[in-house]
Amino acid sequence: MQDQINRISDFWRKEYSAQIDEYDAFEVSEQFKQIASFFTPGLSYYYILNLHNLEIDFISEDYRNLLDVPREEVTMEKLLTTVVKEDLGNVENKEKVMQDFFSRYLTKEEKLKYKALYSYQLRDPKKRKHRMLIQATPLSLSQNGSIKHMLCIHSDISHYNINVSPYISFIDLKGEKSFINVDSSDGVFDPSLSNPEVENKFLNLTDREREIIKLLSKGKSTSGIADTLNISVHTVKTHRKNILQKSGCANTAELIAEFIIGGILNH
User: Fold this and answer.
1) Sign of the Cα pseudo-torsion (127, 132, 134, 135, in order)
2) Is 53 helix (H, G, I), strand (E, B) or coil?
């Protein structure tokens, strides 16, 4: 396991750190912390990664739920030790695809408008497994276009019962061209390996059906959705039935899981 962790760390240093000449700490304002907290509900945490030296410029206190070490001892290598051993190979491939996408495929102007996301398995200090979703987006670039700082958000999505897959998605934050469920098995980004099926499922839904899916993903019950949208419980049930018929999913939990992993729904 340590060999795999070292290999991933060495890859980051070679492909990211070696491209950045000067150290530049990211200044985290209270406003930034407040905004970031909105995107890390439940069992989640976030950090700012300084790619010049792979140091963590800031990490939210919530990391203590998943990693039992003092703040000053948190490193990227320590975070990698929380990944379930059997999943480290998948994480390595996804990180290679992410680097390839941001460094080779995008122009300098495009880099700050994308986020990457993928799932992995984590083992907490009590040896319990969690299915996690990581979302990563560049915050700043060097003059040569290399990424200097990255915001990384890790969220527990175990309650969605999502199976960890070899896929990684790249979402255009301006709503333009996204790449959903790219197969990472070869460790390189290939746009032809993107699978638009999940996105098409969402686009095939009506505006009202999308509203209901979003509310379901936030834990709303059928009656709660009826109250929120000022419609009858019967109407909500009918919409839910139509949603499943259109999507081909066995239940709404399965569909929500697909939408979250595909970046269609924000967790």
Assistant:
1) negative
2) coil
